[in-house]
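Take a specimen:
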Amino acid sequence: MSIALQAEKLNKHFHEPEDFHVLQDISFWVNKGEFVPIIGKSGSGKSTLLYLLSTLDTDYTGSITINDVLVTGKSQNDLAKFRNENIGFVFQFHFLLPEFSALENVMLPALKLGKFSREEIEANAMDKLKQLDMDGFAHKLSSKLSGGQQQRVAIARSLINNPAIIMADEPTGNLDSINTGIVFDIFHELSQHNGITILTVTHDLDFAKGADRVIEMVDGKIKV
C-alpha cells in the first residue's frame, strides 16, 4: 500500500507570550485510502498538527511529504496551487457563502482552479451533490439549509477538485448524533470505495472508533 502523507520529526513552537514547544518530534504516515482520526484532549496539539499537514502553517522544523511531493520549503504561491489540486478541506463551521446556492458553493474551488469550463464544473458539482444525497437542494441558498445539510455541501465542495486527501478539523463538532453518523458514513465510503485519504481531528471518540486506525496525541506528542 502506498503512502499518501508522511511527516518526519515535526517540531513547532509558539513564541508568544513565551516559548512553548507545542509539537515535539512528530513522525507518522498515512496510507492512500486510509481513514485516520487524530484524537486528544484540548491543548494536545492535534489541530496545530493538522494545520502544518495542510500546508497552511509553514513555521515548523521537520518535513512533510504529500503524494510523493515534499511540500516543506515551497513558496506560498506553490503551496496554494498544491492545496487546491490535492487537498480538500472540511471544517467545524461550513464556511459556505450564504448568498450562493449549494451548487454555486460547491463549484467555487473548481472555478478558482480554472482547469475546466463552467459547464463541466457545474456538471461535476451536481455529481458531487448527488453522491452526498444533496442534489435535490442544489439550487437552494446555503443559508436556508440545515446544519447537517450545510456540512454535506461543505464535504461536496471539498471533493470538487478530486483531491487525493481530505483534511477535516472537528467536522462533526456542530452536528447532532444522527448527522455525525451521516458524516462518518460519507468519510468511510470515500476512503473505502473512492480511495481518498481522510485525516480528521475530532473530540468524538464514537466517531473515531469506526475508522481504520486512530492517532492519539498527548502533550504535543503521538501516544505510542
